[in-house]
Amino acid sequence: MRDALWAALKTVNDPELHRDLVSLGMIERAEVGGGVAQVKVNLTTPACPLKGQIEGDVRSAVLAVPGIKEVVVTFGAMVRTGGQPALPGVKHVLLVGSGKGGVGKSSVAVNIAASLARDGARVGLLDADVYGPSVAHMLGRSAERVTANAERKMQPLEAHGIRFLSMANLSPAGQALVWRGPMLHSAIQQFLKDAAWGDLDYLIVDLPPGTGDVQLSLTQTIQVTGAVIVTTPQDVALIDAARAIDMFRKASVPVLGVVENMSYFVAPDTGLTYDLFGRGGSQKLGGLPLLGEVPLDMEVRKDSDAGEPAVLAHPDSAAAQALTGVARALAGRVSVQALADLPDQLPVV
Ligand SMILES: Nc1ncnc2c1ncn2[C@@H]1O[C@H](COP(=O)(O)OP(=O)(O)OP(=O)(O)O)[C@@H](O)[C@H]1O
């Protein structure tokens, strides 16, 4: 019956990866005794957007095996990498960029990080927006200062389960940074390589807006898994977003998807929906996966000023749900990308 159980599991495909769970090495354990099957599925990310569907598919395939009356499905997760890790201990570096400033890039980056961490991933957040660092404020830690550990490496700060580093925690508050390209390059290098990030599944990098030195420096010096573009839906933002996409393509960084922020607004008093900036405009960016449409929501702004990401402070709001969806869709895209180049038969993990 054990063979029949494994054969049944071999008929279940991961809906995103389009390969069966057995050859993907995702079945950690499958046993049967007294008509009860115990199956442990090791997902490719704890933020798997399709966990419910996988559970349902496993359940129906296993219950079709003669003699099995009950099935208990449990889950674990191990984030995979396609090749070498980006940095020692860091599996994926994900850039969050935008063409235009003020479109909500940092808000999206912070909420992606918080959502992935809440789902159980080990997450770092690097604020590479050195001219306008806002991550520390959005995490409620702008007053803290970064210290060095015994190995003289920068020790990332921690908030809401996220390890993070921001220029705001290094320089005196309120002071402007007047840096040229080479200095920026070395600051970014230090943030990446002279910091004790530890083991991370995802290191999210909040880039400055536009297509400048920091972006170039990052894409040229480490193996980046991919980039996410945040835009609002109106044409002036889309024109700049298209430039940012072009820059990533030229630097051979895969663009994993687009987030349409401030996509629409639901008036809290009337419940009427307003497409203030032209909801759906991001489709004009042509063919890139849309990771989510995040509404304009006063709570998102208030939560970020209060230092608690909306996905944690108001998880049931439409904006938080959309941001959670963005984080999970992104994690799914990363898994697809990591497994795309792997051989047909993977070892069981
Ligand atoms: N969906 C949203 N609803 C309401 N307010 C939002 C939303 N997204 C972002 N904001 C607010 O808009 C402002 C700008 O957001 P944010 O700093 O994230 O943008 P940015 O693109 O990173 O800006 P910069 O160009 O300075 O890096 C912030 O006050 C933020 O709280």
Helix tally equals 10
Strand proportion: 15-25%
CATH class type of the largest domain: Alpha Beta
Distance between the termini: 22 Å
Radius of gyration: 21 Å
Q: Say how many strands there are.
A: 14
Which runs of at least 5 residues are low in confidence (pLDDT < 50)? none
- Topology-level CATH name of the largest domain: Rossmann fold
Main pleated sheet: 9 strands, mixed
The appropriate CATH architecture of the largest domain is: 3-Layer(aba) Sandwich
How many structural domains does the protein architecture include? 2
H/E element string? Answer: HEEHEEHEHEEEEHEHEHEEEHHH
Which class best fits the helix and strand makeup? Answer: alpha/beta
Ligands present: adenosine-5'-triphosphate
The helix content, as a percent range, equals 25-40%
The global form is globular
Mean pLDDT: 91
| Fourth-tier CATH superfamily name of the largest domain | P-loop containing nucleotide triphosphate hydrolases
Protein name: Iron-sulfur cluster carrier protein
Family: Belongs to the Mrp/NBP35 ATP-binding proteins family. In the C-terminal section; belongs to the Mrp/NBP35 ATP-binding proteins family.
Pfam families: FeS_assembly_P, ParA
Domain MIP18 family-like: 2-73
